[in-house]
């Protein structure tokens, strides 16, 4: 079989291999009449107008026979890379092998290929065609010299920005989408994705049309820079965040990342319900727009603050004041948010600080999940009376009811509870970890929940990858691809056409480095006499 492998690799390199054992041809055979030749030396495999085909046979003395047929790669649908275009876009370079040593060696070989002048986009797309193996390394790259340097760092085992390494687990990857509430917004968020990512832009266009029909204004126009000061208005920022979340989820799915469940946090449950298939886009937009419009009535009357204490300790501190302030959020076992009357919240913040407990106001002017919401609940139920929720396609893990909730239960009463009851993120994340989650992706313009989620993951002593979709002030595509790389090395398979687009099919074919065999010898050691006797 070793001869079969060597001959096959030689043909793949464009060489006709020499026969393993023939040194002199039998003079009694009329070779010229047979129209065949036995090669005694390696030689180039000539290129002609005809399609090149080769067969390699191996006949083992033990009776094991094998035959491999190779055909020249098709060229009709490929073309050389043209300068410019999308060649400067960030993309992924994927490397995998059966163990860490081979994976790093292969990364170093890729760096040498780039140093030799092979263009980066063609290497990236050619690498997609290789068999996926357990140990993986991925790099976010956009220019050849930095890409080669990043691969050399990965080959040496050094941690560099944009390079991740890992091994897939025994169980299938399970990704959970996490949709946060208000607070992740920033001026300019996702603006570059509107211009560069067609899937994101199309999803935003659908949300834009729905918000225009419901509320009469355009999220896309605001994202593109019109009236950034309106992000201070609760009835603007919440629909804006909803639209960005829905579009980010669409982008992840187009790249092959499919969630096994969704979790939402406060207003984030609206986008989660839509992505889960429980609410149509029109119904989801009705919920987020009507909910946030009602909040304008109590704007400026309340405050929220995060306290670095368990919920039980915070509840004890609120004794006698629950008519004015309440626990609004339990983000983790040691991170609790209080909400209610501004004066009472400020007094509690000062009290916690005197006791040397970390506590700070949250940058909002609406006290969601507090007694101040009570006068709004009947109006919210009436405004959403015609909702028509469906069963949905994904498990919806409720941070309101503390369990996985059927999609058709997300009616007007549910959204009233969503506005008033505390958010139990800690419990929902613990349930997802117990159910086997291997990665949690925060679907937002900036990660605001991942630190608390990390605390729950540590408490559970679990191995869960935490991924941000975007980060404030950083390029969107690069940040998304960094997250995709982290998911891929943990076993999440990507959609090549989704990530690379048509370019994955029209790049010219390049010869990639061969697999770096480690050439370790494996022998069954002869057991000692004592071991044989002990084994019977």
Shape by Cα distribution: elongated
Radius of gyration: 30 Å
Q: What is the rounded distance between the termini?
A: 35 Å
| Poorly predicted runs of 5 or more residues | 76-85
Oligomer: single chain
Give the biggest beta sheet: 6 strands, mixed
Output the strand order for the largest sheet. Answer: 15-14-9-8-16-17
Q: How much strand?
A: 15-25%
Number of helices: 21
Per DSSP E runs of 2 or more residues, the count of β-strands stands at 17
> Helical proportion?
25-40%
On the 0-100 scale, what is the average pLDDT? Answer: 89
What is the SS-derived class?
alpha/beta
Task: Characterise the protein shown here.
- The protein is α/β, with parallel strands linked by helices.
- It has helices at residues 2-12, 31-34, 100-115, 120-127, 144-155, 191-196, 198-215, 219-223, 234-254, 268-275, 281-295, 311-317, 342-354, 377-383, 412-420, 425-434, 450-459, 476-489, 496-500, 503-506, 529-534, and strands at 15-16, 43-44, 53-59, 65-71, 91-97, 135-141, 163-167, 175-179, 259-264, 302-307, 325-332, 335-341, 359-361, 396-397, 404-405, 439-442, 465-468.
- A 6-stranded mixed β-sheet has the order 15-14-9-8-16-17, sandwiched between helices.
- A hairpin with a 6-residue loop joins strand 14 (396-397) and strand 15.
- Helix 7 (198-215) packs antiparallel against helix 9 (234-254), helix 7 packs across helix 11 and helix 14 packs antiparallel against helix 15.
- The longest helix is centred in the middle third of the chain and has 21 residues, at 234-254.
- The radius of gyration is 30 Å and the shape is elongated.
- Residues 76-85 have low confidence and may be disordered.
């Amino acid at each position: 079989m070793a001869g079969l492998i060597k001959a096959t690799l030689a043909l793949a390199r464009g060489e006709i291999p020499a026969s393993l054992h023939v040194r002199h041809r039998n003079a009694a055979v009329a070779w010229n009449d047979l129209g065949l030749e036995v090669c005694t030396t390696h030689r180039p495999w000539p290129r002609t107008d005809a399609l090149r085909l080769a067969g390699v046979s191996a006949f083992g003395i033990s009776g094991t026979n094998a035959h491999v047929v190779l055909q020249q790669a098709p060229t009709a649908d490929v073309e050389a890379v043209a300068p410019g275009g999308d060649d400067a876009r960030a993309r992924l370079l994927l490397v995998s092998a059966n163990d860490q040593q081979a994976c790093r060696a292969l990364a170093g070989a890729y760096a040498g290929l780039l140093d030799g002048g092979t263009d980066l986009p063609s290497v990236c797309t050619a690498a997609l065609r290789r068999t996926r193996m357990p140990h993986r390394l991925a790099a976010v790259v956009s220019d050849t010299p930095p890409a080669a340097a990043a691969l050399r760092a990965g080959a040496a085992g050094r941690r560099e920005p944009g390079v991740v390494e890992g091994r897939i687990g025994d169980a299938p990857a399970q990704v959970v989408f996490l949709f946060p509430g208000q607070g992740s917004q920033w001026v300019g968020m996702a603006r570059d994705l509107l211009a560069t990512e067609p899937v994101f832009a199309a999803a935003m266009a659908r949300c834009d049309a729905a918000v225009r029909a419901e509320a009469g204004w355009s999220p896309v126009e605001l994202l593109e820079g019109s009236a950034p000061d309106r992000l201070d208005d609760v009835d603007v920022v919440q629909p804006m965040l909803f639209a960005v979340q829905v579009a980010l989820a669409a982008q992840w799915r187009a790249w092959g990342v499919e969630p096994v469940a969704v979790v939402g946090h406060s207003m984030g449950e609206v986008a989660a319900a839509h992505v889960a298939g429980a609410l149509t886009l029109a119904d989801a937009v009705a919920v987020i727009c009507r909910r946030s419009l009602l909040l304008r009535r109590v704007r400026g009357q309340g405050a929220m603050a995060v306290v670095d204490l368990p919920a039980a300790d915070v509840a004890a501190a609120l004794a006698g004041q629950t008519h004015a302030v309440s626990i609004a959020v339990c983000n983790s076992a040691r991170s609790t948010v209080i909400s209610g009357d501004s004066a009472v919240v400020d007094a509690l913040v000062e009290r916690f600080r005197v006791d040397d407990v970390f506590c700070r106001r949250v940058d909002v002017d609406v006290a969601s999940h507090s007694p101040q919401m009570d006068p709004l609940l009947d109006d919210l139920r009436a405004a959403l009376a015609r909702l028509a929720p469906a069963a949905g396609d994904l498990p919806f893990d409720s941070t309101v009811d503390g369990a996985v909730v059927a999609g058709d239960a997300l009616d007007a009463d549910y959204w009233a509870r969503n506005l008033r009851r505390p958010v139990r993120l800690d419990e929902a994340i613990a349930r997802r970890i117990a159910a086997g989650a291997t990665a949690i992706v925060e679907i937002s313009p900036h990660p605001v929940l991942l630190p608390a989620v990390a605390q729950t993951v540590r408490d559970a002593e679990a191995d869960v990858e935490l991924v941000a979709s975007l980060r404030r002030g950083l390029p969107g595509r690069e940040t998304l691809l960094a997250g995709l790389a982290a998911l891929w090395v943990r076993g999440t398979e990507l959609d090549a056409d989704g990530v690379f687009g048509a370019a994955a099919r029209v790049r010219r074919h390049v010869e990639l480095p061969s697999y770096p065999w480690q050439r370790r010898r494996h022998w069954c050691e002869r057991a000692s006499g004592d071991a044989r006797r002990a084994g019977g």
